[in-house]
Amino acid sequence: MEITLFQGLMLTVVGFICGLDQCWEAFFWFRPMVVSFLAGIVLGDVQLGVACGAVAELSYLGLLSVGGTVPPDPLMAGMMTVVIAYTTGQSAETAIGLSLPFALLAQWMGIFFNTVYVGIAHRCDKLAAEGDANGFKRIVYAGILIKTSAIALLVFLCTYALQAPIQSFVNTFPEELIHGFEIAGGLLPAIGLGLLLMVTLKKENAPYLFLGFIMATFLVMPNVMPIAIVGVCLAFINYMYEKKIDNASATVTVNDIGGEENGI
Amino acid sequence: MASSQKRGKLTKKDITRMGLYSIIEQSAFSFERMQAPGFTLSMLPAFKKIYGDSKEDLAEFMTYNMEFMNTEPHMATFLMGLILSMEENGEDRKLIEGIRNGLFGPFAGLGDAIFWFTLLPISAAICCSLAQDGSVLGPILYIVIWFIAAISRVFFARFGYNLGVKAVSRISESTKYLTKAAGILGVMVVGGLIPSYINVAFSENLKFGLGEGTTVQSVFDNILPNILPLAFVFLIYWLFKKKNGNVLIIILGIIAFSIAMSFLGWM
User: Fold this and answer.
1) Interface test mutation site (partner B, options A33, A138, A230, max chain B beta carbons within 10 A)
2) Minimal CA–CA distance to B74: which of B160, B188, B143, B11?
3) In terms of C-beta distances under 8 Å and separation of at least 24 residues, what long-range contacts does B235-238 make, across chains too?
4) How far is A261 from chain B (nearest CA, A)?
5) Considering CB atoms only, which of A33, A68, A230 is closest to B197?
6) What's the pLDDT band for B171 if we cut at 50, 70, 90?
7) Between A and B, how many CB-CB pairs are < 8 A?
8) Strand runs (DSSP E) across chain A, as ranges?
C-alpha cells in the first residue's frame, strides 16, 4: 500500500519524538517495540506494527548501545520494518532484512553527529570558563534540537520521499566501506578514554591501570563491577597506609623536637 | 575558591527536580566528552540555588564537570546528588572532581548491568511474547516498564545526595588521602574498560607467511591478549599529551585508517 503525504509527515513526528528519546535513552521509545507500535498506529494497521515491533526488538536485542559504540540504528530498523511490510506486503521477517540499509544509514548519521559535536563540547568549555550558564544551556539545547531534527528528516526521506533511491544508494556501497565504519566504531571510544587518562593518570597510580586491564583481559566478568570493587579495596588499603605513615612521621617529628628540647 | 561566602541549602524538592531534569543528560553527546555537557547542565539549576549567581563558583563548577563523562544515564543522578551535597558543604573542588572522575566508571558498570543486561532482555522477552500474538498489551507494558525505570533516577538522585550529606564531615577530614584513593579507583576502572570499550584485531586471513596456523593477530595474542586496544589507548593518550593533538583530526584520522585497513583486508 502507498504511504500518503499525511502519513509520511506523521511518521516524521514519530521519528522526532522517538529520536529525541534515542539521544537521551530516557524512556526507551527509540526501541523497535515502541517505534513500530507508533508507526503502526499512524499507518492504521496496529496489528502489523505490534508484530513487526516484536520481530525487530528481538533481532536488535543483541545489539546494545553499551560503552559509547553506535549499533545499527534500532529506531530506523523498527520504523522501516513496519513501513516496508506495509508498502510491499512482505512478512515482518523479510521486512527487517530489507530495513538494514536504512539502519546503517542512520548509524552513520549518529557517528557523524558524535564527531561534529566535539565542536559543541569545545564551545561549552569556553562558556564554562566564563561561567555563562544561559549560553551553555542554549548551545546544549541547540545541539539536541538539530540532531533530533536530522533524525526526523531522515525518517521522512526514508519512509516517504526517497525510499527506493536510498535503498539502492546504500546497497551500492562497497562491503569494505561498511566494514571500515565497523572498525572505526571499535576504535573511536579510545578518544574518550585517552582524554580521561589525561586528567586522571599519574605516575603514582599507573600500576592500577594495568591491574584493571589485566583483570578485564583474563577474567570472565559480566561487567566492570568486580574491578571497581577490587579498586575500592586497593584504594582503601592505600588510604589507610598513607594516613598511617603520615601519622607516624608526625609523631617522630614531635618526638625529635621534644628530644632536642630536653637536650637543651 | 570562593566557598567562604554564604551558601544556599537544597531541599528534597530541588533534588527531585534535578533527577527529573537529568533526562536531558545525554544531550550534545560527542566522542570527546560524551555526556559531559548534559551532565553539567542537569546540575546547574540546583547549583545556582547553592551559589546564587557567583560567576567565579559557576565557572569552576562548570569547568570541572565538563571533563569527560560517560556513565549510565539512570544512575548518573546518584553522582549528581553526591557532587551537589559536597558543593553545598563547600568541599575542596579538587576532591569533588577526583570523586566524580573515580566513580562514574563503576556506576556505568553497575547501571549497564541493571538496565541494559537485566531489565532490557527481561522486559523485551515478556513484551515480545505478548506482541507476537498481535496484542497491543506488549508495547504498552514495555512503555510502562521503562517509564518507571526512567523515574527511578529521582530515587538515585536522593540516595546520592543523602549519602553525601551524611558522609561529608568524615570526607573533609581526610581530603588529601581520599583524592588519591579516588584516583586509584578511577584509573583502575579505566584499565578494566579498555578491553570492552575498544575492539581492534587484525583479520584472521592476515598471515604474511608466518607459517602454519599462525596469523598476525595470533602473534599479538600470544604476547598479551588485548594488547592492541591497550596500545591504541596509549597512542591516543600520547597524541593528546605530548603532541597536543586536535580531537577532530584524530577522529577523522581513525575513520580514514579504518577504511584503509578494511580495503587492504588487514582488519
Assistant:
1) A33
2) B160
3) B235/A190, B236/A190, B236/A191, B236/A193, B236/A194, B237/A194, B237/A197, B237/A198, B237/A201
4) 31
5) A68
6) low
7) 386
8) none
Residue A63, chain B, CB below 8 Å: the answer is no
For A162-219, what is each residue's pLDDT tens digit? 877 877 777 777 888 878 877 887 888 788 778 778 777 888 889 999 999 999 999 9
Q: What whole-number distance in Å separates Cα of residue A62 and Cα of residue B121? A: 9
The three grid cell numbers given for residue A163, joined into one nine-digit string? 525510499
Report in angstroms the alpha-carbon separations of A16 from A30, A138, A204. Answer: 10, 19, 48
Nearest CB partner across the interface for A124, out of B37, B131, B188: B37
d(Cα B28, Cα B36) in Å, to the nearest integer? 9
A140, three cell numbers: 546544549
Distance CA A250, CA A244 (A): 10
Confidence label for B26 from pLDDT (cuts 50, 70 and 90): very high
Residue B67's SS3 state is: coil
Name the residue among B58, B191, B199 with its Cβ closest to that of A209: B191
CB B246 within 8 A of CB B253: no
Q: With a cut of 0.95, is the ipTM above it?
A: no
Cα–Cα distance measured from residue A24 to residue A12, given in angstroms and rounded to the nearest whole number = 18
Q: State which H helix or E strand residue B130 sits in.
A: helix B120-131
Residue B209: CB partners within 8 Å, gap ≥ 6? Answer: none
Q: How confident is the model at residue B6 (pLDDT cuts 50, 70, 90)?
A: low
Question: C-alpha angle B137/B142/B146, rounded to 5°?
Answer: 150
* CA–CA dist B72, A244 (Å, integer): 36
Phi-psi region of B52 (alpha: psi -120 to 50; beta: other; left: phi over 0): left
Count CB neighbours of A238 within 10 A: 19
Give CA separation, B156 vs A42, A195, B38, B84, B163, in Å.
36, 27, 17, 13, 10
